[in-house]
Automatic annotation (TrEMBL):
GO cellular component, one term: Ctf18 RFC-like complex
Similarity comment text for this entry: Belongs to the DCC1 family.
Keywords from the UniProt entry: DNA replication
Cleaved signal peptide residues: none
Domain of life: Eukaryota
Single GO BP term: DNA replication
Protein name (Swiss-Prot/TrEMBL): Sister chromatid cohesion protein DCC1
Amino acid sequence: MSRSLENVLTVIEKAKLDDDSLLSLSQLVYYSGDINQENSKVFELPKELLEDLKSQKRFVIRGNENDSAVLCTDSATYDMTEAETSNLLLAVPELSVPQEIPESEEGRVLKIIEVRKAFQTYFELKPTKPKLKRLREMLQSRLYNGPELEMEVDSKTLTFDELCGRIQASEKELKDALDENHAFILNGEFRILDIDYCYRTWSLIEGVKEENSWSLNSMKKSVILESISHISPVYVIEAFLKRFCHISDEDEDIISLNHEEIARFFGEFLFNRNQQYSLTEFLSYWQESVPEGVVVDIKHLSGLAIAKPESQPPVIRFFPEYDLPEDVPQRFMALFAMKPKWTLEEITPYLIRLVSSSKDVNALLTKHSRASVVNGVRYFSAKHGN
């Protein structure tokens, strides 16, 4: 470098600065020959991510070639958005900040420092919900339909490591999503039960219940396993019972039917045959199909089907939340294409997975819809009349 300590002292003098009032270290910053930043990126970290980084916790960037990348910790997912800055960001690792400069009794010291990289863009990280639509699609490709049909199943395996590599979610969020999808492990990979196979399994269990004169609230798990394990594998029966039954606090062998879950299943089973019904006929078919003692309620189909009582005749249509786009504007377009006006109670199940809490649903509605009141009832519709 051409500058010397004498040059620095001359600049201080010409600037009419008091050398004694300045820190004793002068830092001369210069550009090296190569400040290409292609192999380095700058991230603006939220406080919680900075703490994780200091604790040396693992970060993973996930996404396929056509995905917008996300950053995942062990338990959370963050959107990565590239932003430009009007000021050049310089990477100068040897630069000392004032708090790090000690007092010197030997007079002014000159330190020459190299700029390693220069950046005009950086990545903003914002908390986001995991992208789970692909998970359901992958599980649907590996439906369990019984041991006799295993040879016909797609040969691609779905191990946890495979899912981690393809699903944009943290490991904790992925495990939670597998539980929500009622996935179980078979030969080291995740599977879910085909809806027809679920129906067959319930028919077998119901036969055991009738044979032993049990009520829906007091069935013996061990007897069920012993009675039908020669027809359906034990791990499949246990996966079914985990989904549709509660375990007694007093005796782990005593189980009771989850009325809401079984009612929801039978509703979806009917929609597996027909996508739309007359509302009156559907409610009648649905009640007739569920086990005796279970009372159906349209609320059991929250996020799965939508009733249109204003139609002539009134209808109910299969409209599962899991089939809708994960992109927020696209989801609202799909919702208002299905139904022009929604009450808060109707639309919330279709938005709740996009936000962190139910309170945030109102913020989404404010941004992407317009509200109106008809006969004292608040409705939400497309913001621009689309």
